Amino acid sequence: MRVDVLGVGFDNVTMVEAVDAAAELLRADGAHYVVTPNPEIVEVCREQPQAMAAVNGADLVLPDGVGVVKGAAMLGTPLKEKTPGIEFAGHLMERMASEGKSLYLLGAKPGVAEEAGRRLTARYPGLKLAGTHDGYFQDDGPVVEDIRRSGADCVFVCLGAPKQELWMAKNGAATGARLLCGLGGSLDVFAGRVERAPEFWSKHGLEWFYRLCKEPRRIGRMMKLPLFLVHVKQEKGRRK
């Protein structure tokens, strides 16, 4: 049973349970996809019904960040813990490496996915890199065909929200991959282009503030966090 936070249904799982569930999806027939919404994406879903449908249609919906966890608690339906997408991806790649699974990286600027692939295969011996493609394309067809030909078991789709969620919902089955994961800007981190917040900031739920200090241009996007909390309070009042 999912926990409803402003219309988005989150799976109430720990990180270990999330990775176990993803590993099962990798072994199951058909295509499946994972999304990792944060408060900003929840607000986008409230504004865009297609995005809401794509997010809620995922096989796993994981709370990326403390904001969603706090929101769920305020609504009286607490989630077990936050499961940040980039950390989920790391644990999943460990599992995939141990099983000899292959990964395709899609997104970011030209050259970033290739560099991320080199670093990831060095970090996770046994992980196979099926292929890469940047996020600067107009036609889905050739990209989908390239993934299908690669035989990838899993695809990290890093196109930004809600584009990546819509892309996975539309094209997932055609790629031939068992699992697709929407992971935003993770490829820039994996490639060493962007630094993650230090552990202190992450532990105290301030990773968003660290990123804002590093990238002040994100202020417009960050303003969705207080808006999210306002909407949570309004929803709490309606539920009483």
Describe this structure in words.
- With 240 residues, this protein is α/β, with parallel strands linked by helices.
- It has one domain (2-239).
- The protein contains 13 helices and 8 strands.
- The protein has helices at residues 15-27, 39-47, 49-56, 66-74, 85-98, 112-123, 140-150, 163-175, 186-190, 199-203, 207-214, 219-222, 224-239; strands spanning 2-5, 8-11, 32-35, 60-61, 102-107, 128-133, 154-158, 179-182.
- It has a 6-stranded parallel sheet, with helices on both faces.
- Strand 7 (154-158), helix 8 (163-175) and strand 8 (179-182) form a beta-alpha-beta unit.
- Helix 3 packs across helix 8.
- The radius of gyration is 17 Å and the shape is globular.
- The model has no long low-confidence stretch (mean pLDDT 92).
| Low-confidence parts | none
Work out the helicity level.
40-55%
Q: Which of globular, elongated, flat, extended, rod-shaped describes the shape? A: globular
One letter per element, helices H and strands E, the order comes to EEHEHHEHHEHEHEHEHHHHH
Radius of gyration: 17 Å
Q: What is the terminal separation in angstroms?
A: 21 Å
Largest sheet: 6 strands, parallel
State mean pLDDT (0 to 100 scale): 92
Strand fraction equals: 5-15%
Query: How would you classify the quaternary structure?
Result: single chain
Largest beta sheet: what is the strand line-up? 4-3-8-7-5-6
The overall strand count is 8
The secondary-structure class comes to: alpha/beta
How many domains? The number is: 1
Count of helix runs: 13
